[in-house]
Amino acid sequence: xxxxxxxxxxxxxxxxxxxxxxxxxxxxxxxxxxxxxxxxxxxxxxxxxxxxxxxxxxxxxxxxxxxxxxxxxxxxxxxxxxxxxxxxxxxxxxxxxxxxxxxxx
Length: 105
Description:
The chain is mainly α. The protein is 59% helix and 0% strand.
């Protein structure tokens, strides 16, 4: 079981890209009112993602919700590009980079 403190640290990682795209589309069409509610998310087929979305976006107005979702999607796209570049490098016979240590804790 994930405690509340740890669940907050997960951010929107539990929300799959398809759901974020649906959310963003609804936000740009302004068919999903903000602040977000379970009823609004359910109307747009996002009930399965309602938990993490409401945990992190509840109470925010439209511009803020859009900004967060765009940032999350951009971050995921950048990570995917970096991952694909590494895989291409390895497939071409390149060496794996040395592991890095994260001392930010």
